[in-house]
C-alpha cells in the first residue's frame, strides 16, 4: 500500500490522491462564503486577504483557540473550525498538500514530455516544468513521501530523516509493538461520513471516553480501566489492555490494543493479530471520507471464519462511530453552540491535536 506523507504530516493513500476533487469542491475555493451567522468568534465570512494570505476572519477563527491555556482550563476550538468553509480553505492551504492536474505528460524520470493546449504561450521552457523530486522512504508496511518546497537532493535523504519527520520519537514504541511489514493486507473499506474531518479525529482522540456509551460490544472486549495516553511531537498513542475472550474463544482484540494518531489525519490501530489504518480525507466542511485498510497476521489469512467475524465486528464499531460523529456535527452547527471543554484526564490527545493544528494554521 502506498502512503504519501506531506512535509507537514499530511497523509494520503495513493488511491485517494485525487486532489483535484478537493480543489474543485466549492468549500476549497477562496471565494466561498461563510454561513452568515454572527456568533462572536464562532462563525464568520472571509474578509479580504492580508499580505500573509490569511483573511482577518480566518485569523480570528485560528486565534479563538488558545493552546497556551493548560488542559484543565482549556476551551475547545470554536464551532467555526468545523462548520466554516473558509476555515476548511485555510486547512487545505496550510495543513494539506495541494496539487493540480492539466493533462500534461511526463517521463518516468519526471521530465515534461508533452504539454497540451499551450498554443500561443511565450517563453515556455519544458525543462523548467518537470515534476519536482520528492524524498521517498519506507517504514514498516508504509511508503512515505516527503513533500518539501525545497526538496532535499536524493543523495542527502535517508530513511531515518523521513521516519523522524513522520513519527518523531514515537517511532520506537510503534516499531516494538508489532506495526511491521510481515502483516498481510487483506481488504479496504471506505466510508463517507457527514461530518467535518476533525470530528472523526476528535472522536478517535477522546481517550476512550465514548467507548462504554457508543460501543457496548467493543467495551466488553477491552479493559477500559487500563486505558492510557502518550503524547509525542506529532503522534499520540492510546493504549488499552484486552478484556476476557468470548465464550466461544473468539478474540480479535488480543491482550492489548494500541491506537496511534499521526498528525494530521492518519491512524494506525494494532490489536491481537490485526492492524488497521484509517485515513481521514476532508471532502467538504461537513463531509469526509475515511479509508480503512486491514492487515492480518499471515498465520490467520486462511481462517475465513475468523477474518469475516473480525471484519463484521469492526464494521459494527465503525457504524456506531458514524452515528456518533454525524450527531456531533449537527450539534456543532447549532447556533446555540460555540466552544466546549476537555475532560482533562482522558482527552489529552484531542487537545494535542488541536494545539498542533493551531500551530500549523497560525504559523504566519
Ligand atoms: Fe469509537
TrEMBL record:
> Which enzyme class?
oxidoreductase
Against CDD domains, the record matches this protein to:
RHO_alpha_C_CMO-like (cd08883)
Query: What does it catalyze?
Result: choline + 2 reduced [2Fe-2S]-[ferredoxin] + O2 + 2 H(+) = betaine aldehyde hydrate + 2 oxidized [2Fe-2S]-[ferredoxin] + H2O
Q: Which cofactor does it need?
A: [2Fe-2S] cluster; Fe cation
Task: Quote the InterPro entries the UniProt record gives.
Answer: Rieske_2Fe-2S_sf, Ring_hydroxy_dOase_asu_C_dom, Rng_hydr_dOase-A
Query: What stretch or stretches form a coiled coil here?
Result: none
Could you give a GO molecular-function term held by this entry?
2 iron, 2 sulfur cluster binding
Q: Which UniProt keywords apply?
A: Monooxygenase, Oxidoreductase
Matching Pfam families: Ring_hydroxyl_A (PF00848)
E.C. no: 1.14.15.7
Pathway per its UniProt entry is: Amine and polyamine biosynthesis; betaine biosynthesis via choline pathway; betaine aldehyde from choline (monooxygenase route): step 1/1
Homology family:
Belongs to the choline monooxygenase family.
Its annotated function is as follows: Catalyzes the first step of the osmoprotectant glycine betaine synthesis.
PANTHER family in UniProt = CHOLINE MONOOXYGENASE, CHLOROPLASTIC
UniProt name for this protein: Choline monooxygenase, chloroplastic
- What is the native source organism of this protein? Musa troglodytarum
The organism that produces this protein has a lineage beginning with: Eukaryota, Viridiplantae, Streptophyta, Embryophyta, Tracheophyta
